[in-house]
Amino acid sequence: MPGRRNVATGPVVHRTARIGLRLTRAQRQRCFGLLRAGGDVWACVLEINAWHRRRGDKPVAGFPELCGLLSASGPGTFGELDSAGARSVLRRYSDAWFSAAARRRAGHHEVRYPRRRRALMPIRWYHGTFTVCRRQVRLPAARGCPPVLVRLDRTVPYPPGTVRSVTLLFDAGRLWLDVTAELPVATYPPGTGPDPGRVAGVDLGIIHPYAAANPADGTGLLISGRAIRAEHRLHLADTKARRRATARRAPSPGQRGSRRWRKMRRRARLVEARHHRRTRQALHEATTTLISWAVEQRIGTLTVGDPRGVLDKPAGRRHNLRLRQWQLGRTLHILQDKAALAGIRVHLVDERGTSSTCPACHQKISKPRGRTMTCPHCRFAGHRDLAAAFTIATRTQGGATTTPANPCSGVVTHRRAGRHLPGAGPARRDPRRRPPRPAALGSLGRRRPAPPLPVGSRSLTPVNEDPQHHRTQPGQRSWTPH
């Protein structure tokens, strides 16, 4: 594949996959040597600019100027790190410096220039300097040093000819390799691709990460994120319990470099990284489900309600914690990335008032406290997140409002996100949670079944939300307004 992309090939997107490394002791030491050499490059640039700052000279921040200083230093200055890997560190510093300068010119004076030293810096190699063969990657080294051969945990999920760069980094106590590929936008046979004229509304939330509605035929999609919310809650409970258990054995502030302290911090980082990987994977699954539904419906434009305005409003200690765990920015980034790969446009609109507007008669109503919205004007009843999605679908970027053809009259498809999370299976119980201890010692006796219900009794669970009539496929429910 050529080093420069051919414009005639069409639009492309860049995707990155993080893959773990399976290394021997010698390979691990060489990888850490490369990362430490990257930290030395970063420290050298900081020291040079500190000299310029003390003398009142202009700082050296441009990428060509930094590359000139690297060339003048000569080969072998930074151990086994080659010039391509060292230039990636210089590129990172240049981008960080100019980004901070632009933000300070915009009035954000609290933003600081990059002046903090780092022991380990990620190293990136671009196309033509490395070789990927199945599960083995050959990384370049300095002149006179043998190349670094590393083995991957899994195969690269992209075609070999599309890989554009690899990045060696250390995160959460483990060495990783980020593989970035250049993928073309999906193409479809004539008459089967997304139609730009078909618009669907998407409502973002915590319990339901995505609630999508297609006004053309009244169909909808609900993706449940209760497993993600349970993962956040259990992770918080585990963190509190771990801190209470280690509070008695925690070293004093003067002993922060002890072996016990390092072991405790390493364990905390491993657990935190595992939690982030689980939630990130669940968000990717939910977004893939939404994009697949949009491609099946031939939807070319997703109108997404942007709720970031509510993040700055104080709503109490508990609700502020929910908003902090929402990861709204990551959700929008994943949605835009996967939609671009599928050839679908994403428009962000203001979602204010969508949860308190009837999608059938467009009258203002009080926001429901539960999951069911009932309109006193037209007697509409349905899921409030889907109702908000139908209202969002009528909004455009300019603020204009259109009237949907068939609001809330089709089949609603229900899906779940995070099936890989603990406790998301049929048992609905997290294996990390221990069984409750009895209050009194001794056996509680044999478990006896519950008494039978009287003949003719009925469940008290309300059934007016998402009635399961006229089911056509597994996981689908019809939704007809009352």
From TrEMBL:
Cas12f1-like TNB domain mapped to chain residues: 331-392
Annotated segments matching region Disordered: 239-265, 397-482
Pfam families linked to this entry: Cas12f1-like_TNB, OrfB_IS605
UniProt keyword annotation of DNA-binding present: yes
Domain Probable transposase IS891/IS1136/IS1341, first and last residues per copy: 190-309
Xref: InterPro entries: Cas12f1-like_TNB, Transposase
Keywords: DNA recombination, DNA-binding, Transposition
Biased composition annotated in UniProt, kind: Polar residues: 397-406, 473-482
Entry's family note: In the C-terminal section; belongs to the transposase 35 family.
Protein name, entry field: Transposase
Source organism: Paractinoplanes lichenicola
